[in-house]
């Protein structure tokens, strides 16, 4: 066994000091405030020094119990719990709908399907508009509900909408989908992994019954941490407490919430960094329009390159984007590094995050980059294109 492999020198992060445009990274970059508290809280169960009630969400020092209320207010929902990621939040909700039927958008993340599968749910999909915009039209929810009724004899029990999808960064019309769900009396999970924490999300305005969020994706927190917010109607079912009694010992755990494993598994840095970043997160969502402006500018610059084109909705309403680039793909075919050439060329210019091997299509997120950094990334792409003989408009 070569233990040297794990020495601090060998555990340096490969992307250190570079501009990282990986879609999943931008909203999870820690704030200065979070960096300041890291070391003090880095030990295992650090937040449990003064746990008097046997549940992380009830701890008063550090102020997690208050934080829970502030996050609920921020999302305009009634109750919140912290989970091990958005995926766990979805699992927790769906565990209250075991073996029932769920309708999800056809851009949903794999974790939505897995959470449903773990709970033996039957999944139906709402189609999207296909190439090139791949939009989810709200009325397709109503059509899918009717289709489920025709096939099974009853309307579905639950619906899920991915507010911003991970493939194209399309912003779905959550309010309208929420309205349709209300008309049918079907509770809606809004997956805000790519929206809450970077842009405003108001659960009541959007008619969401559940909001799931990802702290490490969009709230500047250390993984793994997610948020599950809901309204009073669902609290008893989703946050149901244990009814088990030890058959021999007679012990009971009546305060422990079953689907949260009794006490949600976020005992240290994840919850501390989520809290420490929260004031900055509350402030940063007000600057969302400027983030979108940067994304739109970046698209305009990228499309000056021969054969590069945005796919997904136009104009962009989010900072995550996908391009198709047949011209880069043709270069890859004759390059000795094959599809990896683009990754290497970008790395030489101080940029990481475009998936190694991808040239035909690639994804980028410009959230939180300064204007200078966005310009640097656009210039890098143009420079690479020109160096391989592609046309770039002035
Ligand atoms: C739309 C969407 N939802 C959920 C997730 C998973 O989030 P988490 O890691 O918090 O479980 C992802 C991850 O990429 C995602 O893109």
UniProtKB/TrEMBL annotation:
It catalyses: O-phospho-L-seryl-tRNA(Cys) + hydrogen sulfide + H(+) = L-cysteinyl-tRNA(Cys) + phosphate. GO terms for molecular function: Sep-tRNA:Cys-tRNA synthase activity. Its EC number is 2.5.1.73. One of its GO terms (biological process) is translation. Pyridoxal 5'-phosphate binds at residues 86-87, 191, 214-216. The keyword Transferase applies. Keywords: Protein biosynthesis, Pyridoxal phosphate, Transferase. InterPro entries: PyrdxlP-dep_Trfase, PyrdxlP-dep_Trfase_major, PyrdxlP-dep_Trfase_small, Sep_Cys-tRNA_synth_arc, SepSecS/SepCysS. Pfam families: SepSecS (PF05889). The modification N6-(pyridoxal phosphate)lysine is found at residue 217. It is an enzyme of class 2 (transferase). Its cofactor is pyridoxal 5'-phosphate. HAMAP family: Sep_Cys_tRNA_synth. NCBIfam families: PRK09331.1 (NF006810), SepCysS (TIGR02539). Converts O-phospho-L-seryl-tRNA(Cys) (Sep-tRNA(Cys)) to L-cysteinyl-tRNA(Cys) (Cys-tRNA(Cys)). Homodimer. Interacts with SepRS. This is O-phospho-L-seryl-tRNA:Cys-tRNA synthase. It comes from Ferroglobus placidus (strain DSM 10642 / AEDII12DO).
């Amino acid at each position: 066994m070569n233990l040297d492999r794990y020495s601090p020198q060998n555990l340096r992060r490969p992307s250190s000091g570079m501009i990282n445009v990986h879609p999943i990274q931008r909203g999870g970059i820690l704030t200065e405030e979070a960096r300041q508290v890291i070391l003090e809280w880095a030990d295992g169960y650090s937040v449990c020094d003064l746990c008097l009630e046997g549940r992380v969400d009830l701890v008063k020092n550090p102020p997690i119990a208050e934080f829970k209320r502030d996050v609920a207010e921020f999302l305009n929902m009634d109750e919140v719990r912290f989970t091990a990621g958005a995926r766990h939040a979805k699992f927790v909700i769906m565990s209250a709908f075991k073996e029932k039927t769920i309708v999800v958008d056809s851009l949903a993340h794999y974790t939505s399907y897995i959470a449903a599968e773990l709970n033996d749910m039957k999944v139906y999909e709402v189609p999207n508009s296909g190439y090139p915009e791949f939009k989810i039209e709200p009325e397709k929810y109503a059509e899918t509900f009717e289709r489920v009724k025709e096939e099974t004899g009853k309307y579905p029990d639950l619906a899920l909408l991915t507010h911003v999808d991970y493939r194209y960064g399309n912003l779905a019309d959550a309010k309208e989908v929420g309205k349709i769900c209300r008309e049918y009396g079907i509770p809606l999970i809004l997956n805000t992994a790519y929206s809450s924490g970077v842009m405003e999300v108001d659960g009541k305005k959007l008619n969401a019954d559940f909001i799931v969020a990802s702290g490490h994706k969009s709230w500047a927190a250390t993984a793994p941490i997610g948020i599950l917010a809901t309204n009073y109607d669902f609290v008893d079912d989703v946050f149901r407490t244990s009814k088990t009694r030890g058959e021999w010992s007679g012990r009971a755990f009546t305060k422990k919430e079953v689907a949260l494993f009794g006490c949600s598994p976020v005992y240290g840095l994840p919850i501390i960094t989520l809290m420490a970043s929260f004031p900055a997160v509350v402030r940063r969502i007000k600057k969302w329009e400027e983030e979108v402006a940067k994304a739109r500018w970046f698209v305009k610059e990228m499309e000056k390159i021969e054969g590069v084109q945005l796919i997904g909705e136009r104009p962009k309403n989010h900072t995550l984007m996908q391009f198709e680039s047949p011209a880069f793909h043709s270069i890859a075919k004759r390059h000795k590094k094959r599809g990896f050439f683009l990754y290497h060329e970008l790395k030489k210019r101080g940029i990481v995050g475009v998936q190694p091997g991808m040239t035909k299509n690639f994804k980028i997120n410009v959230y939180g980059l300064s204007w200078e950094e966005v310009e640097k990334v656009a210039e890098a792409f143009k420079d690479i294109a020109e160096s391989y003989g592609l046309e770039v408009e002035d």
